[in-house]
Amino acid sequence: MTDLARWLSAQTQDDTLAGVILSMAGAGAEIAGVLQQAPIAGQTGPAGATNVQGEAQKALDIISNDIVLNHLRQNPHVSILVSEELDEAVEMSSQGGFIVATDPLDGSSNLDVNVTVGTIFSVLPAAGGPLQAGRVQCAAGYVAYGPATSLVVRIAGDTSVFTLDGAGTWRLTLAAARVPEATGEFAINTARERFWDAATRGYVHESVAGETGAAGKRYNMRWVGSMVADIHRILMRGGIFLYPLDSETAAKGGRLRLLYEANPMAWLMEGAGGRSSTGRQDILDVAPTAIHQRVPVILGSAEEVRRVEDWYRRG
Ligand code: AHG
Ligand code: MN
Ligand code: MN
Ligand code: MN
């Protein structure tokens, strides 16, 4: 029995849930192979189409979406698929017990510069439909296509990390990820400062002031521009990721998507002792009203997320 299969059998008695995770892991392994050859195959460019998000789709956005569709269509336990790249939710199996929401290729603006990208997925109980709060997720995970190909997954317990070996097997490389409570590293797109609200501005300025300011400690800054890459760094060594509400994204509710970016990452963070917030409420408590709904995302080291929430409480 492989590491992933053994881990799944220890984490859940529900073989159908385990099967959905295995389907997404299979899709990830296939996407990894495609990405590694993409520059040779000339696939790193635009698709010439625009998705429901209003983004210019990359060819690999569509290829990755098709690979996820193919793997999930072979699984009778998936009732609905919600995807960043599909305008509407897709009906899959009529007897499926689970809904999958996916960002088939996250960070795709980085494809032509060979930076880590990923596939993110959230698994919900089918009974409540796609618009359920993240708190009720059955599982969540992502595949990070980096120097190594990592699968990060959580059902209800620990958030664990697997690495794809040369034979295409997922090997357990970290049984329980733990996000350090405190951090000195923040991740935000500082080019957006002119759009920030007072809370974001206050927090970032206090952090940049380092030991000379109220924070009383030195900070470092990292921003990859690929959520999976930034989150994986935070999951492995701590940090805080911020894509907060700002004056430009406010009309849409934020930049990042609730069902297939914020909720799965919040679920994984919770499993590793991290914290997730919109700034004003726990991301996992946000009640979705639309499948492509956007939310502000602040997540990572719990003490640091609380520091940002304190800035929001100051009004
Ligand atoms: P996607 O490629 O799935 O559309 O997601 C891109 C997101 C996320 O990965 C990243 O954190 C964010 O876009 C970066 O936004 P900026 O380009 O505004 O920094
Ligand atoms: Mn996109
Ligand atoms: Mn994304
Ligand atoms: Mn995407």
TrEMBL record:
HAMAP family: FBPase_class1. It is an enzyme of class 3 (hydrolase). Its cofactor is Mg(2+). GO terms for molecular function: fructose 1,6-bisphosphate 1-phosphatase activity. InterPro entries: FBPase_C_dom (IPR044015), FBPase_class-1 (IPR000146), FBPase_N (IPR033391), FBPtase (IPR028343), Fructose_bisphosphatase_AS (IPR020548). Homotetramer. Its EC number is 3.1.3.11. This is Fructose-1,6-bisphosphatase class 1. It comes from Devosia honganensis. CDD domains: FBPase (cd00354). The lineage of its organism: Bacteria, Pseudomonadati, Pseudomonadota, Alphaproteobacteria, Hyphomicrobiales. Mg(2+) 2 binds at residues 103, 106, 261. Belongs to the FBPase class 1 family. The gene is fbp. It comes from the Bacteria. It catalyses: beta-D-fructose 1,6-bisphosphate + H2O = beta-D-fructose 6-phosphate + phosphate. Keywords: Carbohydrate metabolism, Cytoplasm, Hydrolase, Magnesium, Metal-binding.
